[in-house]
Amino acid sequence: MSTTKVQAKPVAVERRRRFDRRWAGLALLLAAAIYAPFQLVPFHVFQLTMVLVYAVALLGLNLLVGHAGQISLGHGAFFAVGAYAAAVLMDRWALPYPLTLPLAAAVAFVLGLALGVPAMRLRGLYLALVTLAIAIFLVPLLKRFEELTGGSMGLTLAKPQPPAWSGLAEDQWLYFLTLAIAVASFLLAASLLRSRVGRALHAVRDNETAAEVMGVRLSFYKTLAFAWSAMFAGAAGCVYTWVIGFVSPDSFTVNLSITLLAGLVVGGLGSLSGPVLGGLFVMFVPSISQDVNDAAPGVIFGLLIIAVMYVAPTGLAGLAGRLIKKIPRKE
Amino acid sequence: MRVPAIGCAALLLLAVAACGGRDAATGGGTGGTAAAGGQCAGQQTTGITDKTIKLGGIYPLSGPASAYGDIPKGIKAYFDYVNAEKGGIGGRKVEFVVRDDGYQPPKAVEEARRLVEQEQVFALFQTLGTPSTAATWDYTNQRKVPQVFVATGASIWGTDTAHPWTIGWQPNYISEARVYAAYLKKEKPEAKVAVLYQNDDFGKDLLGGFKRALEGTKVQVVAEQSYEVSDPSIDPQMRNLAESKADVLLNVTTPKFGSQALAADAKNTKWNPLHIVNNVAASITVLKPVGFENVQGVVSATYYKDPNDPTWANDPEMQLYKQKMQQYAPGADANVPYHTFGWAAASSFHKAMEAAACPTREGLRDSVRNLKGVKVDMLLPGVTLDTAQGDGFPIESMQLMRFKGQRWELFGDVIDTRKEFGPLGG
Lengths: 331, 426
Fold this sequence. Notes:
Helix content of chain A: over 70%
Number of domains of chain B: 2
Structural class of chain B: alpha/beta
Organism (chain A): [Actinomadura] parvosata subsp. kistnae
CATH architecture of the largest domain in chain B: 3-Layer(aba) Sandwich
Oligomer: heterodimer
Membrane topology (chain A): Multi-pass membrane protein
Order of helices and strands of chain B: HEHEHEHEHEHEHEHEHEHEHHHEEEEH
Distance between the termini of chain B: 61 Å
Strand content of chain A: under 5%
Shape of chain B: globular
Distance between the termini of chain A: 28 Å
Radius of gyration of chain A: 21 Å
Strand order of the largest sheet of chain B: 2-1-3-4-5
Number of strands of chain A: 2
CATH superfamily of the largest domain in chain B: Response regulator
Keywords (chain A): Cell membrane, Membrane, Transmembrane, Transmembrane helix
Pfam families (chain A): BPD_transp_2 (PF02653)
InterPro entries (chain A): ABC_transp_permease, LivM-like, MFS_trans_sf
């Protein structure tokens, strides 16, 4: 008995220390995020806002791909559904913008659930194809219902204006709205993953048969993962509409879904910081690669993805972790 | 190990944060300005000095519409030529910054903000495509930044009154439709017309304009078929149209479907309507795969000089263009009409900027809306730039052309749709 106690103590201390460091890191990150918009020009604030929007969408995709081990090439479609839900609600029914967020998320959730039921009976490549089909077929669908969606001209909307008491500029207000939603989404995802659902999802990812033997209902959890992931995408889409103030079918082509997936894989699958790093990647790398070579920005972007995959198979999150481990620690 | 990763992200954010500081006093800074005096006092001079003028353009250099990426090459060649040999526009050297949006509206918004806030451009000279322009024009008008000569033919840029800072350049689709209507009214007053059109703003703009222009005439639209950009083929639509026994086919398509429709028409020997193909799909590259022998007698309309047309072989402007393209854009094929388009648009900007009463953003905004019979040498003789308060369409004249042998041949007079149909209302 006494020996186990002696061993247990350092483990507990180590865990506590790690826990403290994690909170310190998060607090630092949040402080930086709150400080940033007061230091940056509006254009950079806008860029950071878009990073957060993509991060929320990637958070959902991470749940499905990174934690439940499923694949989706149609995540952009749910993003689009959220964006359009918010746009149509604001445009046709003149709903105040804060109300559009829960509604857009709910619409995406229900749609994710509905599409998840048939899609989740499929595996691997077949699932990839079905989700890809969703992304492809959404664009012409959005163009069809012109009275509602504005057809291919899209819908132009007024951006949320900062309340007078805040004293913020429009870009700063949008940034803080997005930041609040991003933080809430991350907390929600983190608590979801720590719960029974999270354990079930990991079991499904690691070994489906074993998970089923342990009493995890595969189709239920897979469908749920699909729906949760769609909900995050829908919320991100809604915030996107607030920030950009314009939606059109061409904003949500298959390219978006593929870029999101690439961003997540590069950022780091199955880690909580992966979506943020992925968001930074999706936002900044295309424009950086254009600065490198004006003629073929796509080529540089593709080469960078390949390079990252070679250097860091676990994504940027894994690479950062490995690099920091290499730094000798003072103990 | 997630802690270090999060720490890294924090560092990254901090690094990004350190990159810039908000200029609270001016809310976006006014780098590179020249003080404007007299009647121009108090107007915006961001991006323009006595020696320089900075312009930004947004084009799809990548993605499905990257063929249009040739346009800025023609523009750059023109500005490089003017900078090196003419001392710039009114003594100001032009700096032209091109950004890629991949034909994606959110990217266009980001790039517009980059150009306006970070690059501090004087004006956006061209955004390409209806979606990208629609996504950015609220922003440019809010910031009071001129967004001139946008490369899209939607009629909304001219009919809208809430966006005075945005203006188109090329003939809008309704004007083009009016040209075809005017031609049919004169040549085939009892024509029965079958229409194939793309089911989006472009197709509907053109078809709607065509129908309105036909009101009160005996020319009738007897059949219409639409297709989606995602359709693999338009053969079923063409079969349905053939059944109408119409004697004119109006082909309102983008290049890929334009080829398909021309090929389907050539294959069907039982139905031989007069085939009118819209300007968007009238380039030689569209006709070539169909076979020149199959497209003889096809009619279209245009407004600028075709570098492949031998009519212009001795035209001084065309010769200048070809020579300067070789000099300032080596490697780019001067015979690609997109380059010519860019050249023509850039020289239109040159004229408009020179005519501006004030070297300010307000000056440019007012100048592009006060063009009176401005001649641009790369446009067809007789096609001029004309705008006024309430008329936001610089080019509204086109000339018809018929395909003969291996090239388009112009025929008839330039049709000024303003004269024929009156001004275009909202």
